[in-house]
Amino acid sequence: EVQLLESGGNLVQPGGSLRLSCAASGFTFSSYAMSWVRQAPGKGLEWVSAISHIRGISYYTDSVKGRFTISRDNSKNTLYLQMDSLRAEDTAVYYCAKDLDWYVDWGQGTLVTVSS
Amino acid sequence: EIVMTQSPATLSVSPGERATLSCRASQSVSNNLAWYQQKPGQAPRLLIYGASTRATGIPARFSGSGSGTEFTLTISSLQSEDFAVYYCQQYHNWPYTFGQGTKLEIK
To answer: Of all residues in chain B, what percent carry a pLDDT higher than 70?
Structure first.
């Protein structure tokens, strides 16, 4: 059974940084691309970033380019999202999802709140 | 960026009736479109990918159609568990994008 467990969400001040983690199990992590999707409170889904399983090629939505960095450690079966220069509009539940294009498997999400 | 527009924002339908949800892309996404269902407090659930292929375990009452810029999700006979928010997502061009969602509520 695929399991994705996000962690690292917290309350952070504007301009601050946070690193999210997603621990994966139940599948061969190194063989799959991985993605992050977020959802602001009471709002819709927003695709954030993805990383390929080969060569670790990364992709970002325009609003986070230059501020967020996606990475993975295949030896630890873990996906990361380093978030810098955080803004109030980054407040959301952040989900990790298995695969690149469409997402069968999702984590339960971790809440990031950017506020002073 | 490809903008995905869903309509209507809210759809009121009685149990047992058919529901038709629409999704329009600002440019062609071929058939690179997925549909998700989300209930409060839960992660989204994949329903359809490739515009018309049901994901594993999804009941046959869910069907997807369309290609290019116009897509439809049809639920043939609504069950109580189908009342939720539905999102379309294109995976044709980076950055991938979701529609704003359609809330399907009980009439």
So the answer is: 100
What is the pLDDT at residue A100? Answer: 84
Per-residue confidence at A56, pLDDT binned at 50, 70, 90? confident
Mutate one of B29, B91, B92 to test the A interface: name it (highest A CB count within 10 A). B91
Does B44 sit within 8 Å of A106, measured CB to CB?
A: yes
Looking at residue B17, what is its pLDDT? Answer: 97
Provide the mean pLDDT of chain B: 97
- Residue B54 main-chain phi, psi, to 5 deg: -70, 140
Query: One-letter amino acid identity for B76?
Result: S
Q: Which residues of B touch A46 (CB under 8 A)?
A: 98
B residues 67-96 closer than 8 Å to A (CB): 85, 87, 89, 91, 94-96
Contact list, A108 vs chain B (CB under 8 Å): 43
Instruction: For residue A60, list chain B residues with Cβ-Cβ distance below 8 A.
Output: 95
DSSP per-residue string spanning A4-26: EEEE---EE-TT--EEEEEEEES
Phi, psi of A30 (to 5 degrees): -70, -10
Alpha-carbon distance of B1 to A84, in angstroms, equals 23
Residue A54 has pLDDT above 90, yes or no: no
Q: Is the pLDDT of residue A11 over 90?
A: yes
